[in-house]
Amino acid sequence: MSPSTAPATPALSELDRPALGALLRDLKVEAYRADQILDAAWRSTAATWGEVTTLGKPLQAMLGAALRFEAFSEIVREDAEEGATSKLLLTLHDGAKIEAVLMRYPADKRRGSGPRATICVSSQAGCAVGCPFCATGELGFTRNLTPGEIQDQVRIARRILRGEGRDLTNVVFMGMGEPLQNADAVLAAIDGITDPKRGGIGQRRIVVSTSGVVPGIARLATVRPQVTLAVSLHAARNPLRDLLVPLNRKWPVEEVIAAAAAHHRTTGRRTTYEVTMIDGINDTDEDAQALVRVLRGSDAHVNLIPMNAVAHTPWHESTPERIEAIAALLRAAGHSVTIRRNRGRDAGAACGQLAAEQAGAPAPAAVARRRELLVTASAAALKGERTREPIAPSGPLA
Ligand code: SAH
Ligand code: SF4
Questions:
Q1: Active site residues
Q2: 3-state secondary structure (DSSP) of residue 70
């Protein structure tokens, strides 16, 4: 894990239960206060120590001096889709910016489920994988998030929902970053958000999405067998996947699918495969047939997601007809398929897009060069030639 510059004062969520107990002992505060503090942090609408009046003024002041209430120095919220989606742009103590997206869904009578709310969390500031259709990939990698910085995205979501009389039901690791390249922190954060005194979210309601970190998939199966695995596949043919998910050069399609199949055997949990649909790039019948070939025998669910436009790429979403055609081919082969509408698109909430905008536009010449390289590289990949060099991001942080 790459080091993050530790701030002078830790945030409450950086402390696990024993560490919080030790801090309270040092401050000569009674041990029973720990639960009260966690309740205030996770089950109220308080956003500062000053608002946690149940603790009393002296303890509020003492905690205020020893601990930051939460990991972020600034929270900017932008609502979209008539209030169904809230995008949160969060500034970390060292100025790095990340995003989290809160999505609210009404009750579904047909399925007999109540209202749901999902927070999509980031696991890193930026991402080192560099998928060329992804706005986070464009930013390059800044640093890993700490477990507290991950948990506090969940905490803020709960706080916002509490103010609306609703509760958080699901957590998905589909924001910025590759969660399994920061697995220690992600697993520690899952401990926090499943702790009944903190997030209280069931493991089964958590999804970890990976671009295919094979050893990480095996580790997840062993240590958190109830967490759902989502694999960002995007293409089943190696030359194209090399381009779309550069990690494929290290762990090719067959190894990723084998790791997911082993995960399924160990955990009994069905894998979800994500395919971002890019017009003319990965949406031909040949692509669908290749998907059918690699997924043969697996009881998988496939999500087809129209690509959100990202400024630095020459690519855009597949037509609805193409997406329907691919879905039909996959269904005919016995797979269950969902065509996803990309939540938050109307205000630019695709993975990493909000933070990318804040980071400033890359130089037009760099964008033009990158677009040109992508056009050449995708043409070669579609002819079946494997690319050797990743397309370097043109972004301001690269
Ligand atoms: N790094 C992890 C998790 C974060 S990305 C992963 O890649 O799985 C979460 C999902 O958003 C991935 O499936 C990714 O492919 C998708 N995504 C990224 N950029 C997108 C875009 N421009 N349009 C649609 N989906 C996108
Ligand atoms: Fe990273 Fe996922 Fe974006 Fe690829 S799609 S660059 S792995 S965040």
A1: 99, 351
A2: coil
**Total domains in the fold of the chain:** 2
The CA-atom distances, in angstroms, between 268 and each of 89, 248, 264 are 36, 25, 5
Percentage of the chain beyond pLDDT 90 is: 71
Q: Could you give the C-alpha distances from 310 to 147, 330, 348, in angstroms and in order?
A: 29, 27, 9
Which CATH number do you get for residue 41?
1.10.150.530
- The confidence score (pLDDT) of residue 1 equals 40
> Is 209 near ligand 1, meaning CB less than 6 Å away?
yes
Same domain for 333 and 244: yes
Domain with 58 in it: 10-66
| pTM (two decimals) | 0.93
Q: Is the minimum distance from the CB of 236 to ligand 1 under 6 angstroms?
A: no
- List strand residue ranges (DSSP E) for the chain, in order: 72-80, 85-92, 97-105, 116-120, 124-126, 141-144, 170-173, 206-210, 228-232, 272-277, 301-306, 336-339
Shared domain for 304 and 198, answered yes or no, is: yes
Please state the atom number of ligand 1 nearest to the C-alpha of residue 178.
1
Query: Tens digits of per-residue pLDDT, 305-341?
Result: 999 888 788 899 999 999 999 999 999 999 999 998 7
Q: Is 308 in the pocket of ligand 1 (CB under 6 A)?
A: yes
Measure 337 CA to ligand 2 centroid, in angstroms: 22
Residues contacting 74, CB < 8 A, separation 6+: 90, 91
Higher-scoring residue by pLDDT: 354, 191: 191
CATH number at residue 173: 3.20.20.70
Nearest CA to ligand 2 atom 6: 137
